[in-house]
Specification:
The complex is a heterodimer of chains A (529) and B (475). Chain A is 72% helix and 4% strand. Chain A is mostly helical. Chain A has a domain at 471-528. Chain A starts with a helix and ends with a helix. Classes of the chains: A mainly alpha (529), B mainly alpha (475). Chains A and B meet through strand 1, helix 5 and helix 6 of A and helix 11, helix 14, helix 18 and helix 19 of B.
């Protein structure tokens, strides 16, 4: 029952008493890790004999995820008091964050798709509000609308899928699963729906941390691993998810190299990590995927939180204006080590488990995942070499970095908890460690080579040898051909029509054709009636 | 029972407006009310009864001099109609011949909305107050009568008569009225009335009966009459390609008039659909209307993306909503869900138009690119109206969206896709507008709002949240 109380506390704290809501719910979730599972059901309403009900189920996994989400939220609240004490609206933003966490917990504990749909809709609206609330120019307004549109699209498709599934008609089953898959891919920002997460970087940094690391991005992963029974019959859908997610993870880890906005760099990294999570889901390794999701939440929020100090000090998101801040060097090193997966930090847990499980799968999948890992490591090393290393320009300022320490300690503790929950083959694990070390070495060497080049100029240096002007020429030629083709069809058609009708002047025939079309439309309408 | 209520009402009226009414008029009114009560008790003819009752309601307008008292009295009249309806529906079967959910709910909702409108205008300046208030009471009465009748020609007569007070209201709101609105409104309603009349005559010729429950039992062979009736309903509803007048008239009409137009006048068409066409059309396919509506939905959504006036955008949203709800009735033939959705439409449109009325009073222009909101509460209200219209989870609109998509999916997946697409477009546009206005707001402004406005909006918001949280009350 404690878990239901915690859910209720989160809901209340999004309107009032926001200061203690998050920490209290974290404590309640942590205590209830040692109690039995609970299952609560409530019939909301029914239409055409289809029952729409609330069905809450809290097992061990659900409670663990909820506790981690609440922990991250309370750390963010703690850091908000330090970082954004001057912000007039920070309390309202914290309340919104609480509502966000509530809807996330509602999604995690949902035992039916209908409840999952409600939480998805809520999450979509709130995430767009996070972007829209930071309103300074037209660009942000458009970004907020983009975020809303993508999320609304996902939730509408999800609603179609849900209703088709609830109709319990075997004719619609395949369509419903396809709809649910599209919604999951859209929510998890996979290609071709990944644009919204980059737009969501306009949100407040704290909201970004929560969006990127622990909440909305993992919705697809949570859905597929929770309701994997739906996907068991449709192997081809899982294969499509695998291909899309691996492709996304590689493409976005490359894209991260060319961005100059720090938030966008981290967003790209997040998208590629989510790709790996979804590919693990597609390989039916649901628990490993969830484990990676939790570990990722910790190390990504650590990286983000450190850069939040940078953004707050330099008052910009552009990475070219950053300089080394002396006090954050050690913490930055820890975050880098955690991200690339070096023990005893939390990233190593997921890397170890992924390596040991992927041993049984085909070589191609292994290679694809290692490539994307390598590319992500390059970006992180590059960040380390440019900003977390002492040099002549480094600035000596004193910050209050207690929240970062709290996050590091929590991540180490949760790492130990997570490693004890899973079984793994020791031989496979050893091989995976060797593999991982090789990947890290390779990525470090590459990162050293390109460390001097600024992020935006990388593209020019790498592709200097290739002459790709011929591609542009080809595109131009193609465009012209299409235009000619279109013109031929369109104008010839008009000439023929005009000649067949009456002999009219050249200037008048266009008008005549327009009248004819309108007349045809009216006739069509009358015929329809 | 209702005699007693009317008596109490007349006593309240005399006591409340004691200062405004002179002694002779007071005596006259007392005597008149007693006489009319006696007559109503004696006469069993519906029409004479209702005319007497109307006279009884309208006489105090001739004596009361103060503007605020007139407005208050209007609200009181609507409240009386509401309570009377409630008792008549639950206890008696006096003049309600068709006793179904649709009639019951709308005969309650119409006086409720009129009452709210009468309260709302207390703070706004109306040029010809007496004319406006008399026509509001008349309109309320006629609209209720339209919904509770059984004879198709009497329904038609009440419905067409209700346009006269509506036009008087449009004329008397401002000193300089826009004649173009009235021309457009008159033109389209007269055309639809013409079509409906022909259709009704055709049905009467075919079946030989004017009572709806008789007609429902018989099979109808006159296809032409029904198609004509459909066109008449389509102009009123509005359905593609006859909807162009609605955004213009609803968008440009002054203040409370747009509330009445969108939340009551549009529902007459749903009445025609439910009571006249739906029972007759069970035999035939509805596919033509369905495809037309789906095309119209997309066209109107795309059109709404190019408009910048907030009221017109809300009017377009109302068109889109009505189109979707028509699907529920036409495809699934489910009057219950249709009623549930249309009731939501009534409340949500009333809410949006009332909130926009506050903005119009303060900022003159409602172009969202130029409007700069000074007041914090106005921004909050605008956001609330947006959230209600886009169907925030746990509100009425959310359940309605689910119900409509559930009904549609069973029938045709392609049409469901089109509906989903138009929903996506216009909800995105509404959120864009909200973010845009939020960006342009002036931060250090006045932070106060009239308490009456807040109370009225809370009263409308209450059912929207209640029926979203506990939909089993109506479903």
């Amino acid at each position: 029952m404690l878990r239901i109380v915690a859910l209720f506390i989160l809901l209340v704290s999004s309107f009032k008493y926001y200061k203690f809501g998050n920490i209290l719910s974290f404590i309640l979730y942590t205590i209830s890790l040692f109690t039995d599972d609970i299952h609560v059901a409530y019939n909301w309403f029914s239409i055409n004999n289809i029952l729409f009900d609330f069905n809450i189920y809290f097992g061990k996994t659900e409670t663990l995820i909820c506790s981690i989400v609440c922990l991250l939220l309370s750390i963010l609240h703690y850091s908000a008091n330090i970082l954004y004490s001057n912000d007039k609206y920070i309390n309202n933003k914290i309340k919104l964050l609480n509502l966000f966490t509530f809807s996330m917990c509602l999604a995690i504990c949902s035992n039916n798709i209908w409840q999952f749909y409600i939480s998805i809709e809520l999450l979509g609206i709130i995430s767009s509000v996070f972007v829209g609330i930071e309103n300074h120019n037209d660009n942000i307004t458009k970004s907020a609308t983009t975020v809303y549109t993508y999320n609304k699209f996902a939730s509408t498709v999800f609603l179609f899928g849900t209703i088709l599934y609830l109709l319990n008609n075997p004719k619609y089953n395949a369509v419903s699963i396809i709809c649910l898959t599209i919604a999951c891919l859209c929510k998890s920002a996979q290609i071709p729906f990944s644009n919204w997460l980059l737009k969501a970087t306009h949100a407040n940094t704290l909201a970004s941390i929560l969006i990127h690391c622990a909440t909305i991005i993992g919705i697809g992963v949570i859905f597929i691993s929770k309701f994997h029974v739906f996907f068991d019959e449709y192997q081809y859908i899982l294969k499509i998810i695998l291909i899309i997610s691996l492709f996304t993870s590689i493409i976005y880890s490359i894209l991260a190299l060319y961005k100059t906005n720090i938030k966008k760099i981290i967003a790209c990294l997040t998208i590629s990590s989510t790709g790996i999570m979804l590919s693990l889901c597609a390989l039916k390794q649901y628990s490993i995927s969830l484990n990676y999701f939790l570990c990722h939440a910790f190390f990504k929020s650590l990286l983000f939180l450190i850069f939040a100090y940078y953004m707050e000090y330099f008052k910009t998101k552009d990475i070219r204006n950053f300089k080394n801040l002396k006090q954050l060097n050690k913490v930055g090193l820890i975050s880098v080590l955690s991200s690339i997966g070096i023990p005893p930090f939390i990233g190593s847990v997921s890397k170890l488990l992924i390596g040991s499980t992927l041993y049984d799968y085909s070589f191609l999948i292994n290679i694809a995942i290692e490539i994307s890992n390598c590319l992500m490591n390059i970006v992180i090393f590059k960040l380390y070499l440019q900003y977390f290393k002492n040099n002549k320009d480094s600035i000596d300022v004193k910050f209050n970095i207690k929240p970062v320490y709290v996050l590091i300690i929590a991540s180490i503790i949760y790492g130990f908890i997570l490693i004890t929950l899973f079984d793994y083959n020791v031989k496979h694990a050893c091989i995976s460690i060797i593999e991982n070390v090789l990947v890290i070495l390779l990525s470090y060497i590459i990162a050293r080579k390109i460390s001097d080049i600024p992020f935006n100029k990388l593209q020019i240096k790498v592709f200097k040898q290739i002459d790709y002007s011929f591609i542009y020429k080809q595109i131009d030629v193609l465009n012209k051909k299409i235009e000619q083709f279109y013109n031929n069809i369109f104008y010839n058609y008009q000439y023929k029509l005009a000649n067949n009708l009456v002999y009219i002047n050249n200037s008048q025939y266009k008008n005549q054709v327009r009248h004819l079309l309108i007349g045809l439309l009216i006739v069509c309408i009358i015929l329809l009636f | 029972m209702y005699h007693f209520i009317i008596l109490i009402f007349s006593i309240i009226t005399i006591c409340l407006f004691n200062k405004s009414i002179s002694l002779t008029y007071e005596r006259f009114y007392g005597a008149f009310s007693l006489l009319s009560l006696l007559l109503i008790a004696e006469i069993n003819n519906d029409i004479i009864c209702s005319i007497l009752f109307l006279l009884y309601l309208i006489t105090p307008f001739l004596f009361i001099t103060k503007d605020t008292y007139i407005k208050l009295y209007t609200a009181l009249c609507c409240l009386l109609l509401l309570t009377l309806n409630y008792f008549l529906i639950t206890k008696y079967d006096y003049f309600i011949t068709i006793y179904d959910g649709f009639t019951k709910s709308f005969s309650m909702v119409i006086p409720f909305i009129c009452c709210i409108c009468a309260l709302w205008i207390i703070n706004s300046n109306i040029y010809r107050v007496t004319a406006f208030c008399i026509s509001l009471v008349l309109f309320c009465f006629l609209a209720i009568e339209t919904f509770i009748q059984n004879n198709i020609f009497i329904i038609y007569a009440w419905m067409e008569m209700s346009f006269i007070p509506m036009i008087v209201m449009l004329l008397s709101y401002y000193k300089e009225y826009d004649l173009k609105i009235i021309y457009k409104y008159l033109f389209y309603t007269l055309i639809s009335a013409f079509f409906i009349l022909i259709g009704l005559i055709g049905i009467y010729n075919d079946t030989g009966s004017v009572m709806i429950h008789d007609i429902c039992k018989k099979s109808i062979n006159n296809k032409f009459a029904m198609y004509i009736l459909c066109i008449g309903a389509a102009i009123k509803l509005p359905i593609f390609p006859f909807y162009y007048w609605v955004p213009y008239v609803h968008g440009k009409s002054p203040g409370v008039c747009s509330v009445l137009l969108s939340s009551i006048v549009l529902k007459f068409s749903s009445l025609i659909l439910v009571k006249m066409i739906s029972p007759l059309f069970k035999i035939y396919s509805y596919k033509y209307i369905g495809y037309l509506v789906s095309i119209g939905l997309l066209v109107s959504t795309i059109q709404s993306l190019y408009t910048k006036d907030l009221k017109t955008i809300v009017a377009y949203a109302s068109v889109i909503h009505m189109g979707i709800y028509t699907f529920i009735l036409t495809f699934c033939n489910n009057v219950k869900y249709f009623t549930y959705s249309v009731l939501y439409h009534t409340f949500s449109m009333a809410l949006s138009f009332l909130i926009l009325d506050i903005l119009k009073n303060n900022y003159k222009s409602l172009n969202f690119t130029t409007i700069k909101i000074k007041n914090k509460y106005e921004m909050i209200l605008l956001t609330i109206s947006t959230l209600v219209t886009i169907g925030f989870p746990f509100t009425w609109g959310f359940i309605v969206e689910t119900v409509s998509i559930l009904s549609l999916v069973q029938y045709d997946i392609i049409i469901t896709g089109i509906v989903g697409l138009s929903l996506l477009f216009y909800t995105s546009y509404l959120t864009y507008i909200n973010f845009y206005i939020f960006k342009n707001r002036l931060i250090d402004g006045i932070d106060e709002l009239n308490i009456l406005y807040i109370v009225i909006i809370a009263i409308i918001l209450l059912p929207i949240i209640l029926f979203g949280l506990v939909p089993t009350i109506l479903l």
